[in-house]
Write a structure and sequence with these properties.
Layout (H helix, E strand, L loop, with lengths): L1 H29 E5 L10 E2 L9 E5 L6 E5 L4 E13 L6 E9 L11 E3 L32 E8 L5 E5 L2 E3 L19 E10 L4 E9 L2 H50 L8 H13 L4 H22 L22 H8 L16
Antiparallel strand pairs: 1-12, 2-5, 3-4, 4-12, 5-11, 6-8, 6-12, 7-11, 8-9, 9-10
Helix pairs in contact: 2-3, 3-4
Family: Belongs to the calreticulin family.
GO molecular function: calcium ion binding; unfolded protein binding
Main location: endoplasmic reticulum
Length: 360
């Protein structure tokens, strides 16, 4: 019995491994390009030798990680580098996913951190059949780019029905591309991607590129985000909180303490006596939830202003000269029947008290 259980367990393990290998095989087929920069880019990427592009690219670790990337090492330089694909990637046959990571390790004051997807040199420009012109379209409302010092991942998903999705850190961002000469296509006619390049002129160094991906399945991009980007981002986020917490908490806590002391003194003012309980309740609520301190301040200021204005304008009443009330006039000059009856009615005679004679 035990031997049969062992055989069944081994068979289950073999089947599981085969299933995993099968999935990995197809996942690899869906990946057109994946550059993790685990190894040096020398000999695999082509650094531009064009005049003026003298920025030095370096193969460096991301700060605080053992993960390598492609680093912009000097400020105030032009940079250019390109990676050719083994074969051009078609954008007409199905979904194509473009994804890469960047980290602004020293922030970003003036510069760029983007990729270019290059068509084959022999390919011609696609002409708009409606206008007959070649037009470069830009996003009308491009998604905002985080300017912190954390690692972020950017994803573009191009689908065969002309749908375009933009993700930042895995979250979809909506926009529009203004196009007065819009026309319908049954299938997109994008030129194939022959290479990936970076061409920037930046005043900022410390920009790190990593995990550049071109794939035919959204699941591949999602898996890479979960396994490479998310762990780094979580570590960086926690470190950021730890670095900011000591200084920020002490300063904010001391400031809030003084604010609360002042508010309690304000609540004791005599002209606010009717509202003291309400003000005290707001202060106590703010002490329990410091994040609402500003809202409480605004509420108390509104109460004070209301009471103050009431004291100024509500305590003084303008003198109003009392005028005799007008006698109502009727449209009938002769008056109504009841009025005539009242006018003709003679005053009633005084009632005399009847005297009773007392009989003996």
């Amino acid at each position: 019995m035990r031997e049969a259980e062992r055989v069944s367990l081994r068979l289950a393990i073999v089947l599981l491994l085969a299933f995993i290998s099968f999935n990995q095989l197809f996942a690899e087929d869906d990946t057109i390009l994946y550059e993790s920069f685990d190894n040096s880019f020398d000999g695999r990427w082509i650094v531009s030798e064009k005049e003026g592009y003298n920025g030095e690219w370096k193969h460096e670790k991301s700060e605080g990680h053992d993960d390598y990337g492609l680093l912009v090492s000097e400020p105030a330089r032009k940079y250019a580098i390109v990676k050719e694909l083994d074969e051009p990637a078609s954008l007409k046959d199905g979904t194509v996913v473009l994804q890469f990571e960047t980290r602004l390790q020293k922030g970003l004051e003036c510069g760029g951190a983007y990729l270019k997807y290059l068509r084959p040199q022999e390919a011609g420009w696609h002409k708009n059949p409606k206008s007959g012109e070649y037009v470069e379209h830009h996003l009308k409302f491009p998604p905002s780019v985080p300017h912190d010092k954390l690692t972020h991942v950017y994803t573009a998903i191009l689908k065969p029905d002309n749908e375009l999705q933009i993700l930042v850190d895995g979250d979809e961002k909506k926009k529009e591309i203004p196009n007065p000469d819009y026309f319908e296509l049954d299938q997109p006619e994008f030129e194939p991607i022959a290479a990936v390049g970076i061409e920037i002129w930046t005043m900022q160094d410390g920009i790190l590129f990593d995990n550049i991906l071109i794939a035919q399945d959204e699941k591949v991009a999602s898996s890479i985000r979960d396994t490479t980007w998310k762990p780094k981002f979580d570590i960086e986020k926690e470190k950021e909180k730890a670095d900011e917490a000591p200084a920020g908490t002490d300063v904010l806590g001391g400031f809030q303490k003084k604010v609360f002391e002042l508010l309690y003194q304000v609540a004791e003012l005599s002209f606010l006596s009717e509202h003291k309980d309400k003000i005290t309740e707001l202060i106590e609520k703010a002490e329990k939830q410091p994040i609402i301190t500003i809202g409480v301040l605004v509420s108390i200021v509104v109460v004070i202003l209301t009471v103050f204005l009431k004291l100024i304008f509500g305590g003084k009443k303008a003198k109003v000269e009392k005028k005799p009330e007008p006698v109502a006039e009727t449209s009938n000059k002769e008056g109504s029947g009841d009025e005539k009856a009242e006018e003709n009615e003679e005053p009633a005679a005084p009632v005399r008290k009847r005297q009773t004679r007392r009989e003996n």
